[in-house]
Automatic annotation (TrEMBL):
<keyword id="KW-1003">Cell membrane</keyword>
<dbReference type="InterPro" id="IPR036188">
    <property type="entry name" value="FAD/NAD-bd_sf"/>
</dbReference>
<dbReference type="InterPro" id="IPR045024">
    <property type="entry name" value="NDH-2"/>
</dbReference>
<keyword id="KW-0560">Oxidoreductase</keyword>
<keyword id="KW-1133">Transmembrane helix</keyword>
<dbReference type="Pfam" id="PF07992">
    <property type="entry name" value="Pyr_redox_2"/>
</dbReference>
<keyword id="KW-0274">FAD</keyword>
<keyword id="KW-0520">NAD</keyword>
<dbReference type="GO" id="GO:0050136">
    <property type="term" value="F:NADH dehydrogenase (quinone) (non-electrogenic) activity"/>
</dbReference>
<keyword id="KW-0285">Flavoprotein</keyword>
<dbReference type="InterPro" id="IPR023753">
    <property type="entry name" value="FAD/NAD-binding_dom"/>
</dbReference>
<feature type="domain" description="FAD/NAD(P)-binding">
    <location>
        <begin position="12"/>
        <end position="336"/>
    </location>
</feature>
<feature type="compositionally biased region" description="Basic and acidic residues">
    <location>
        <begin position="484"/>
        <end position="502"/>
    </location>
</feature>
<keyword id="KW-0472">Membrane</keyword>
<keyword id="KW-0997">Cell inner membrane</keyword>
<feature type="region of interest" description="Disordered">
    <location>
        <begin position="461"/>
        <end position="502"/>
    </location>
</feature>
<keyword id="KW-0812">Transmembrane</keyword>
Length: 502
């Protein structure tokens, strides 16, 4: 076990996560007299809003996932550690992370937790293997493999029923991600792949967007939601609302209608974008501090984004539950910066009890539907209602805004080149798929299971220490299982060092 900040005399800030909340809070501390340790389980900062473009071959993964340590190279007070944070000890003020066999303990004076959210299958975790979500680069590449792989299999099939199943794509969840994906799959089959197969006609592919709710894009309101639905339908996307998925398997899904009746859709390629569950680290905080969690496992933070009894432990981004703050990039960026500012203020003598509450600045929301088409809702100062627009100008606004937030000049340049190619022609430059992309999920889950079994055998874990994430991955359920072994070793050593009773 190692402590990577041993010897530090400055105020130690530990940041968990390299997403929007984690990266922007770290950068905000650039000039502060602190040592920042950012711990994340991936080596990159992921720009999730453009994951769907990776999944559908418009851009490459590198363009939206630059290496965190390269971004922070010039920030001398920041250190980046790769590791999965397994436990947070609020009393000892230590974060414990693991990278393979290596366990690292990182002490903190202040802690910013920005570990985001995972996909939620609403208790049906086994759905994950048949309908992956879209939260990570792995997810996006797997989806690309599944989408293009389905066309490849259809080309080889002589059975009309099987072909129909292979050419039916179902996107579950009609929020922004579902809308963007459904639009892109339709555009890819109608334009990019048109004329590239000899036995099938890719334009005959059927794309279904379904949701248990009665509307498309509910957070954007009925006007923009209705416009998005119309545009999708004009592209051939079939929208099925009030339709709840009650079962899923390799070849299709079972849908329950509003009247209680059920029907089956035959489809090999399914995508899940229907719900989120906050990082399980929230549960550890709840157990130790008494802070409440909402239904999605988000932490109901205090007005200054800290948790009760721990004024220097902040929870930001998708993990926090704050009224009127949506689970969007801006919520995480603003929350991360607020927490960093609170830490800086305290170093200058400010008292936590005097902090101004966190205020969210709503900058609006948008979603793309297809090439040259998007919907956008932006607040206008002095007006109660948001300005709502759709079509080409909304799409242009989306493009420019996302370009601004992509980190790094080179990533921006590459994105512009790929976008130009995709938008000015029917082409997409990232249509490579590999077997590994499609099959690795199961192999990785299998390896994780082997590792946990090994740790159980070694006495590090008890059976109850292992639970499953919302997407079905085995994880630790006990915040401090490793302590068990350490305690056992300590008492062993103690027993050995005690003189024999006379
Ligand atoms: C497909 C998709 C499209 C989206 N589109 C938009 C959009 O158009 N506009 C918009 O505003 N928002 C959009 N969002 C939402 C936005 O991306 C999130 O709100 C934002 O990323 C939240 O930031 P965060 O820092 O809280 O979490 P994240 O960005 O998810 O970062 C979490 C970080 O924590 C790390 N982590 C998690 N658990 C651990 C652990 N135990 N140990 C160590 N590290 C850990 C992860 O590796 C990651 O680095 C989209 C999200 C998705 C998934």
């Amino acid at each position: 076990m190692s402590d990577k900040t041993a010897g530090s005399t400055r105020h130690r800030v530990v940041v968990i996560g390299s997403g929007f909340g984690g990266l922007f809070s770290t950068q905000r501390l650039r000039k502060a007299d602190v040592d920042v340790t950012l711990i994340a389980r991936t080596t990159h900062h992921l720009f999730q809003p453009m994951l769907y473009q990776v999944a559908t071959g418009i851009i490459s993964e590198g363009e939206i996932a630059p290496a965190t340590r390269v971004i922070l190279r010039k920030q001398a007070n920041a250190q980046v550690l790769m590791g999965n944070v397994e436990s947070i000890d609020l009393e000892k003020k230590v974060v414990t992370s693991r990278l393979l066999e290596r366990i690292t303990e990182t002490p903190f004076d202040s802690l910013i937790i920005a570990a985001g959210a995972d996909q939620s299958y609403f208790g049906n975790d086994h759905f994950a293997q048949f309908a992956p979500g879209m939260k990570t680069i792995d997810d996006a590449l797997e989806l690309r493999g599944r989408i293009l792989g389905a066309f490849e299999q259809a080309e080889l099939s002589d059975d009309p029923e099987e072909r129909a199943r292979l050419l039916t794509f179902v996107v579950v969840g009609a929020g922004p991600t579902g809308v963007e994906l459904a639009g892109q799959i339709a555009e890819m089959s109608d334009k990019t792949l048109k004329g590239t197969f000899r036995n099938i006609d890719s334009t005959e592919a059927k794309v279904i967007l379904l949701d248990a709710a009665p509307a498309v894009l509910p957070p954007m309101g009925p006007n923009l939601g209705g416009k998005a639905a119309k545009r999708l339908e004009s592209m051939g996307v079939e929208i099925q609302l009030n339709a709840m998925v009650v079962d899923l398997d390799y070849d299709g899904l079972l849908v329950k209608e509003k009247d209680g009746s059920t029907r089956r859709i035959e489809s090999q390629c399914k995508v899940w974008s229907a719900g989120v569950a906050a990082s399980p680290l929230g549960k550890q905080l709840a157990e130790q501090s008494g802070v409440e969690l909402d239904r999605a496992g988000r932490v109901k933070v205090l007005p200054d984004l800290s948790i009760p009894g721990n004024p220097n432990v902040f929870v930001v981004g998708d993990m926090m539950s704050v009224e009127d703050v949506p689970g969007m990039a801006q919520g995480a960026i603003q929350g991360g910066r607020y927490a960093a500012d609170a830490i800086k203020a305290e170093l200058k003598g400010a008292r936590p009890e005097d902090r101004e509450p966190f205020k969210y600045w709503d900058k609006g929301s948008m979603a793309t539907i297809s090439k040259f088409s998007a919907v956008m809702s932006v607040p206008v100062p002095g007006f109660k209602k948001n300005l709502e627009t759709e079509g080409f100008f909304a799409w242009l606004g989306w493009l420019l805004l996302h370009l601004v937030y992509i980190v790094g000049f080179r990533s921006r340049l590459n994105t512009i080149v790929d976008w130009s190619f995709a938008f000015l022609t029917k082409g997409r430059s990232q249509l490579t798929i590999t077997e590994q992309q499609v099959l690795a999920r199961n192999a990785l889950d299998h390896l994780a299971q082997i590792d946990l079994d090994r740790r159980k055998e070694a006495g590090e874990l008890l059976p109850d220490d292992v639970a499953e994430t919302p997407s079905g991955k085995p994880v630790l359920s006990d915040p401090t299982p490793k302590v068990r072994k350490a305690e056992a070793e300590d008492s062993d050593a103690e027993a050995k060092s005690k003189p024999a009773a006379s």
